[in-house]
Amino acid sequence: MRSLLIFGLILSNFSVIDAFKIGAILREKEDAHIAAAIQYAVEWLNQRAIYGQVDFVIDYIDVLDHYEAVLKACSLFEKDHVVALIGSSHPMLNAQLERLAAQMDIPLLTAVDDLGLNANTDVRIEFFPKAQLFESIVDLFRHWRWNRITIVYEENERIRRIEPLLEDDAYSSIRFRLVKIQNKDYMRAARDVKELEECSFYQRKDCSEFSRILLDLNPEHAYNFLLAGLQMGLIELKHWFLLTSMELSTMDMELFRYNHARYISPYPVDPIFLKEKAHVFNFSHFKHHIAENWNTRTGFSRNLKLTEAIFTFDSIYAFASVFSDVVHSQSQLVHDIPQTTCRKPGREARKYQYGRTLIDAVLNNKVVGISGDLHRVGHPMKSNFSMRIHLLGYSGRLDDIGFWEPKTDVHVNMTGDSRAQLQKNVQVSDELKPHFRVTTIMERPYVMLKKNHFELDANSKFEGFCIDLLAELSKDLGFTYSVHLVKDGAYGNDVHGNGSWDGMIGEILRGEAEMAVAPLTVNFKRAEVVDFTKPFLSLGISILFKVPDDQQPDLFSFLNPLSWQIWMAILTAIAGVTVGMFVVARITPYEWNLNFSCCTAHQPHPGATFNADSEPVQLSNNYSFWNTLWYVTSTMLKGGCDFGPRAVSTRLLGGTWWVFTLVIISAYTANLAAVLTVSRPFIPIKNLDDLANQSTIAYGTIKGGSTMQFFQESRIGSHVRMWEYMKDRDVFVKDNTQGVLRGIRENYAYLMESTSLEYEVQQNCNLTQIGGVLGSKGYGIALQKKSEWTDRISRQILLYAKRGIIEMKKTKWWRSKGASCQGGGAVKQQRFSLSFHNVAGLFIILIAGLLFGLITVIIELLIRSRQMAKKDKKPIVNEIRDELKFALNLNKPTEHRSRQKTLKAAETTNGQTVNGK
Ligand SMILES: *[C@@H]1O[C@H](CO)[C@@H](O)[C@H](O)[C@H]1NC(C)=O
Ligand SMILES: *[C@@H]1O[C@H](CO)[C@@H](O)[C@H](O)[C@H]1NC(C)=O
Ligand SMILES: *[C@@H]1O[C@H](CO)[C@@H](O)[C@H](O)[C@H]1NC(C)=O
Ligand SMILES: *[C@@H]1O[C@H](CO)[C@@H](O)[C@H](O)[C@H]1NC(C)=O
Ligand SMILES: *[C@@H]1O[C@H](CO)[C@@H](O)[C@H](O)[C@H]1NC(C)=O
Ligand SMILES: *[C@@H]1O[C@H](CO)[C@@H](O)[C@H](O)[C@H]1NC(C)=O
C-alpha cells in the first residue's frame, strides 16, 4: 500500500495524470444540444491540453423515466468514477439527479433555467444567470419607461418568476396583462393579445398606440406564437416583442423580419472573450457543431437553445480549469480515482472525498467563459456578468444595440435603428426618441410643484411656464425627457473663477443633465461654456416695492391739489394786487365819484342835484386799502362785490386778476377730486436713480444671480454706486421668494427680473413695480456645447413666438393662475399736485396786468393834470405834484381844489371830497 502510494506520487510527477471524467444523463433528442456541447467542450479542452485529460460519459434515458435515470447515474459514479455531473435541459430530471449527487458530494453543473424546480442542495452549481436575466428584462422596461405590457406565457412555472413584478410597489406604475397559451392554441392567444390592445374608452389615458409584449416562452413556442401573430396582424410597426429566451439570434425569423415589428432579446455571449480567444476558440464553429448535432438528432426542431449549450460549455470549461488549479496548487491527490457509491438498502452512500473542495472551488472560480464572468458566489447583482442586447428592428437586420450590466443597468443606442424610420417620416415610438435629462429650478411661475405632487411621478409633478414649453418642444421635436431639480438650487455661476461652475450650468458641464429649461439668463460667461437657444422670453431688471399702507385723507388734504409754492405765490399775488389796485385806484382821477355803489355809478348821485352851488360835493374813492383787500379776495373767491373799477387802469388790473383767479380756481377744483380719491400715499422713489441717490430704503437682489452680475459689471455711475452700496451689506437673498417676502416685511426694494416681477405684482396687490425696465436680456434653454439640438430648438422657439404660443402660455401662467390683482397694481407713485411751473404763466400775466395798470394810470394822471393845469394856469409839474400828494393822502382834501366840484363846472365828472370813508 505504502509503495503504491509512492509509486503514484512518482507517476503524478511524470505523466499527465490529472485526468478526470464527467458524466451526464441525458435524453436522446431534447438534450442533443447539451450532448453536443459536452462533446465540443471536452474535445476543445483536450486539444489545448493545459487542463489535463478530460473524459466524458453520457448515458441516455427514455423520456422522463426518473428511476432509470437514478440507476444510470449510480452506475456513472460507481463504475465510471465520474467527478462531476452535467445537468440536462429538463429541470425536473436535474432535481432528481441533484438529490442523488448530494449524497456523494458530486458537483452537479446545470445550464438551464430551473423554473424553481430544484432540490435546494449545495452540490448544484447553476451556470444559467437566472437573476440577471430577470433583472435585465426589468431594467429594459424601466429604461424605455414601458407602462403597459402584455405578458404571454405557457408553462405555469413561468408565472412564478414574474410574480415579484406583479406584486412589487416599484412596478405599480406598469400595467401588466397576462395571456396564457392554453392547449397550444396560439391563435387564440394572439387574438387575446389583440383584443387587449384595443383601448376601451375609459382607459384612453394610459393607452398607447404602441404595444409592448413580453414573450416568456421557449424558442419553439415563441415561434408558434409569432406565426399566429402574423396571421392576426400583430407583426407590424407598432409592436415590440421582448423575448426572454435569449435565442433571437438562433431563431428562424425569416417570416417576421420584414414587417417592421421590433424584437428584442438579451444575449449572454461576452464579445471580449470571443475576441481574446479568437485564436483558440471559433464561436461560429461551435454554433455550427451544436446546430448540426441538434438538427440530425431532432430532425430540425425549432426548440434549439444555444444559450444552454453555451452555459454547458462554460460549466465544463470552468470545472476543468478549477480542477487543474486544485491539482497544482494543493498537491492533493485529487486525481485519485474516486470511490463513490450510491446509497442502497442496507448501505450508506460513500462520499467523494474531494467533492466539497471542488464545489467550493468551482463556485469561486475566476474563469471568464463564452458568457463572461463565471463566478457564481455572492449576490448575482454584484457580479461582473453582463448581457448584450439584440434587436431585430425596422431594418430587418439583427443588431447588437448595447448591453446591460448589473451595476449601471441598460446602455442601448437605438439611433441606428430609428434613423431609417425617421427618414421615412414614419411615426416613432418613445423608445426611439432621444432622451434628455432636464435640470430645472423651482421658480414661480416657471416651475412649480402641483398641489397633489406627492402622488405623482417625477415628470408630472411639476407645472408651469417652462414645463409647458418643454412638453410642447418634446411633442413637436420628438424627444423624451425626465425633469429633475438642480441639486444645489443655484442657477449657474463660475464661483471660484476657475471653471468649476455650480447650479444648472454645472450639471450640464458635468454631464448630469443634457438640458436646462428654466428661467436661466443668457449671458456672455455662460454662453462660453454651454450652448443657448434663442431666448424664449425677453426681460430686464426692475424694482419691486411694497405699496405703503392705505391712509385716510388727512385734515389738510384740501391743500394738496396745489403745491406749497403755489399757495405762497397766491398769497403774494393777493398782497401784490391789493397794493397795486389801491395805489392805482388812488392815483387815477376817474375813481373819485359821488357814489358808493357800483350799480349806480353811471348815474349822477341824487344828492348832487340838490346841493347846488352852496356846498361843494365831496367826491369819494371806493378803493380804500381795506376795501381793496376785500375786493381782491372776494372776486377771487367768486364772492362778488358791490363796487367795481371804473377807470381804464383799474379795470385792466381787475380784469387780469379775474383771469388769474378763474384759472387757479378751476385748476384747484379739478385737482381736488383726484387728490382726494387717490388716498394711497406716494412712494418716495420713481426709478433706479432715485434709489441710488437715497439711503433710507435698502435694496438688493439674488446672490450670484445675473442681476447681481449686472450691477457688478456695469460701468454706469449710478449702478456703480448701487453696487458699492450692496456689496458689503446683508442685502442679498437666496431666491425670489425670499426677496419678495423681504420686500413685503421690510423697507426693502428688491431688484428682480421684470417677468418674475410682473407675476409677483399680479399675485399680490400690495406690491408694485417702480420705474421702467433696465437693460434687455433673455431666458434661453441651455444645452451642452455643440449640441445638434440647439439649432432645432431655437427654430422651434422662434416658430412659437411667431404663432403666439409663447404669449398664450405667458398669459396662462401670469394672469389666470390665481392672480388676484387683475389689471390693478399700477399705483400712482406720486401725489398729483400742481407745481409752480405749471401755473407760472398766470403769474406772468398778472404781473403784466399790474404793470399795464400802472402805465395806464400814469397816462390818466398826465391827461388830467394837463387839463387842470390849463384851467388853473399853473405849471403842469405842480399840478402833478398836487394830484399825487392828494392821492397819497399827503394833503387835506379841502386843500385840493381840483377835487372840489361844483355842479356848474360839472361837464366832466370831478369834484372835491374828503378822502375815504
Ligand atoms: C471558424 O469555423 C468556420 C466553420 O464553422 C470556418 O468557416 C471559419 O473559417 C473558422 N474560423 C477560423 C478563424 O478558424
Ligand atoms: C469585476 O471586475 C472588476 C475589474 O474588472 C474587479 O475589480 C471586480 O472585483 C470584479 N467583481 C467581481 C464580483 O468579480
Ligand atoms: C449611436 O449610434 C449611432 C450610429 O448608429 C452613432 O452615430 C451615435 O454616436 C451613437 N450614440 C451614442 C450615444 O453612442
Ligand atoms: C476651483 O477652485 C476651487 C476652490 O479654490 C476648487 O475646489 C476647485 O477644485 C477648482 N476647480 C478647478 C476646475 O480647478
Ligand atoms: C443723484 O445724485 C447725482 C449726484 O449726487 C446727481 O447727479 C443726480 O442728478 C441725482 N439724481 C437724481 C434723480 O436725483
Ligand atoms: C396687503 O396689505 C394689507 C394691509 O397691510 C393686508 O391686510 C393684506 O393682507 C395684504 N395683502 C396681501 C395679499 O398680502
TrEMBL record:
Q: Which SUPFAM superfamilies match?
A: Periplasmic binding protein-like I, Periplasmic binding protein-like II
Give one GO term, molecular function aspect: signaling receptor activity
List, for all copies, the residue spans of the domain called Ionotropic glutamate receptor C-terminal: 435-816
Q: Where does L-glutamate bind?
A: P519, T521, R526, S706, T707, E753
A cellular component annotation (GO) from this entry: postsynaptic membrane
Under InterPro entries, the record lists:
ANF_lig-bd_rcpt, Glu/Gly-bd, Iono_Glu_rcpt_met, Ionotropic_Glu_rcpt, Iontro_rcpt_C, Peripla_BP_I
Tell me the Gene3D superfamilies matching this sequence: 1.10.287.70, 3.40.50.2300, Periplasmic binding protein-like II
Extract the signal peptide range: 1-19
Which residues are marked as site: Crucial to convey clamshell closure to channel opening?
A: I685
Q: List the disulfide bonds.
A: C74-C342, C765-C821
Primary localisation category: membrane
> Where, per UniProt, does this protein localize?
Cell membrane; Postsynaptic cell membrane
Pfam families, alphabetized: ANF_receptor, Lig_chan, Lig_chan-Glu_bd
Transmembrane segment boundaries: 564-585, 656-678, 839-863
Membrane topology note: Multi-pass membrane protein
Q: Where is this region: Disordered?
A: 894-917
Which residues lie in Polar residues bias regions? 907-917
* Organism superkingdom: Eukaryota
Looking at the record, the residues that make up the Ionotropic glutamate receptor L-glutamate and glycine-binding domain are: 445-510
The alphabetized UniProt keywords are: Cell membrane, Disulfide bond, Glycoprotein, Ion channel, Ion transport, Ligand-gated ion channel, Membrane, Postsynaptic cell membrane, Receptor, Signal, Synapse, Transmembrane, Transmembrane helix, Transport
Q: Which PANTHER family match?
A: IONOTROPIC GLUTAMATE RECEPTOR
Sequence similarity: Belongs to the glutamate-gated ion channel (TC 1.A.10.1) family.
Protein name according to UniProt: Uncharacterized protein
Organism phylogeny: Eukaryota, Metazoa, Ecdysozoa, Nematoda, Chromadorea
